[in-house]
Amino acid sequence: MTLHLDDLRVRQLGECRYDSPFSEMLSTKQTSPHYVAEGDRVLLEDTVSMLAGHRLPSVQAPSFEAAGPRRKIYFDPANVTAGVVTCGGLCPGLNNVIRGLVQELAVHYQVKRILGFRNGLQGLTAEHRDDTVDLTPEGVRDIHHAGGTILGSSRGGQDADEMVDTLVLRGIDIMFVIGGDGGMRAATYLSNAIRARGLDIAVIGVPKTIDNDLPFTDQSFGFQSAFAKATDFIAAVAVEAAASPNGVGIVKLMGRHSGFIASYAALAANAADIVLIPEVPFALGGADGLLAHVERQVRAKGHVVIVLAEGAGQDLLEDYGLARATDASGNIKLGNIGELVKESITAHLTAVGLTPTMRYIDPSYAVRSIAANAYDSVYCLRLAHAAVHAAMAGRTEAAVARWRRRFVHVPLSLMTSRRNQVDPDGDLWMSVLETTCQPAEFGPARERERVRAGFC
Ligand SMILES: Nc1ncnc2c1ncn2[C@@H]1O[C@H](COP(=O)(O)OP(=O)(O)O)[C@@H](O)[C@H]1O
Ligand SMILES: O=P(O)(O)OC[C@H]1O[C@](O)(COP(=O)(O)O)[C@@H](O)[C@@H]1O
Ligand SMILES: [Mg+2]
């Protein structure tokens, strides 16, 4: 899909008439390597060849609106009520984002009323709409030290019109939705319903997912904290495997459709011999299959360490007749590829006289329930600032994201238009192959979903 400049434009509720508390500070600022001035834009693409492919002058090339404070704002802060909700799976940094939103709204824009809706979008249903938390700078002062979300979260669908009724009844002018692909989709439906009723309510998304599977964002917040934690488990399994006869260490990590956590954690630990991700199908049997490679590794070095993403090899589980089920939000429930790999390796190595010592860890929720690390804490805070500036300036149906190091506004519809995945032809996967020395494919080259490397 080719993206044009118009696809990247963000909707604005109306003219900005009020002075921003940042007016004076902004008066002398200009674009630099470290700042994008108001009105300037950030290019979608960052190579000469991709840019040249558009055959357009750079001002007409696809670009995002830069995030950040404006000299004039749309909402009168004295009359604003803001709402915040966190939805989907947990992710390090959720509390940091909540705290950042509240502080920026209250301290700089002097917004007096900020409501936290509980337990995800469930909190916007008729049944739960009155059970909100009053969010104040004092109340959120220390929440960033803890993982999870003080507001709670959930999966499961809600009616968009019912949620809009809630916003109207609770007097919400600005709604911040902190969520993943599901949450961004829900925010889009919510925005559509708001627009259909002609209401003056801004919806701003803050993209969240430890899977890093959302597009148009360099990396999602919490991802770095999550893969750093995952690294500890790989290191532990590597020590165990190396110290055991025919040691086999396996770590199964989250990553429903995208193998970013597995790839980054494996690179960080630098101790894995094999990384398996959803984007690269693999075969178990055969001379080039996974089992033969595992056997070769065990014979050569006495042990082997495998990192696998939960979404890897799902086609193999289907061969075992596993039915495809979905969770309350419609996400595919995965089969347990870790168990299949573990059982298959045990059977294979035993059959060839290399009875293994199996060390299998599935850290699962331990990786995503932690507090944000220092890097993610900064990132979350800056995303929150950008979200508040966007909303106060009347931007709506948009998410804030960091794109090629700059903070930008991305139309919500784009956030759900594709999935960010590890590109088997890209340099991240090449680094994984360079580090593990595993073959590019296990088994005969299989048809794989092509990951889009560019946008045109
Ligand atoms: N297709 C959809 N239509 C409407 N709402 C959705 C849709 N997908 C997800 N949602 C809503 O978004 C929320 C979060 O989605 P989910 O997939 O569970 O997590 P995430 O936002 O982390 O991807 C769910 O509670 C659900 O209400
Ligand atoms: O057990 P749960 O809450 O359904 O979460 C499992 C899924 O949540 C994730 O951590 C992230 O998913 P979302 O970002 O879509 O919430 C996946 O890696 C994992 O498959
Ligand atoms: Mg999701």
From TrEMBL:
Pathway assigned in UniProt: Carbohydrate degradation; glycolysis; D-glyceraldehyde 3-phosphate and glycerone phosphate from D-glucose: step 3/4
Entry coiled-coil feature ranges: none
EC class (word): transferase
Molecular function GO terms recorded: 6-phosphofructokinase activity
Residues annotated as binding Mg(2+): D181
Swiss-Prot/TrEMBL site (Important for substrate specificity) positions: G182
Catalytic activity: beta-D-fructose 6-phosphate + ATP = beta-D-fructose 1,6-bisphosphate + ADP + H(+)
Residues the record marks as active site: D211 (proton acceptor)
UniProt-annotated binding residues for ATP: G89, R155, G156, G180, D181, G182, G183
SUPFAM superfamilies per record: Phosphofructokinase
Task of the protein: Catalyzes the phosphorylation of D-fructose 6-phosphate to fructose 1,6-bisphosphate by ATP, the first committing step of glycolysis.
Protein name: ATP-dependent 6-phosphofructokinase
Organism the protein comes from: Amycolatopsis nalaikhensis
